[in-house]
Amino acid sequence: MIVLRSSAYGVMPWKNGGGVTREMQREPAGAAAFDWRLSLATVDSSGPFSAFDGYTRTLVLVEGAGLDLSFGQHGGARLVAAGQMVSFDGAWPTSCELLDGRTTDLNLIVATERAQSSSRCVRVTGDEVVPTEPDSERLICSIAGELRLTNTTGVTARLGRLDLARCLPSDGAITCRPLEAAGALVFIAAVRAK
Q1: pLDDT tens digits for 80-94?
Q2: 126 in helix, strand or coil?
Q3: Across-strand partners of 92?
Q4: 13: which of 38, 46, 65, 106 is 20 to 30 A away, CA to CA?
């Protein structure tokens, strides 16, 4: 289990120059043509998204009043509550309209030909067991609240808000326990090479 702290995320400009992204993790590290990337983007104004041909994107609202997404002829989506998510083709012409000021979004971008992913957001109010699988790793990020993670060998880690845990098959099942009475809102993704 590898824990990455939000204070250490690198900052990089958007491909289209319209803002900045805090990169949480990229695989392979430093590669321009990455297999997958997880990042946090702060959207200050309405406008177009960068194009990511050959990638599938999953966007999760983290904070703010929300946004309307337009995918041109492919429709759209509205995200208004933390934890709401949408997946879409990175090649689609995508733009957003902010509903009431700045938002922060979690973005998982996966190379369609080299990797695959599945993801969900869950409200954790008690023990939540996250299995690992032999050919993939699990990404766990607390959108709201703090967690204690424990793997099958008893190794524990504290996960603060927007910290990221990379959990490997050798960790076995990961038990997530909230450290606050209100629980925690948690993003969980599985990523694997094709």
Answers
A1: 999 999 999 999 999
A2: coil
A3: none
A4: 65
Nearest to 12 by CA among 27, 4, 24: 24
pTM, two decimals, is 0.94
CA-nearest of 153, 128, 126 to 140 is 128
Q: Which domains does the chain have, with CATH numbers?
A: 10-113 (2.60.120.10), 116-193 (2.60.120.10)
Burial zone of 57 (CB within 10 Å; 0-12 exposed, 13-18 middle, 19+ buried): buried
Q: How far apart are CA 74 and CA 90, in angstroms?
A: 12
Adjacency order of strands within the sheet including 10-13: 10-13, 20-27, 36-43, 103-111, 55-63, 85-89
Pair 190, 131: CB distance under 8 Å: no
Quote the longest CA-to-CA distance of the chain: 50
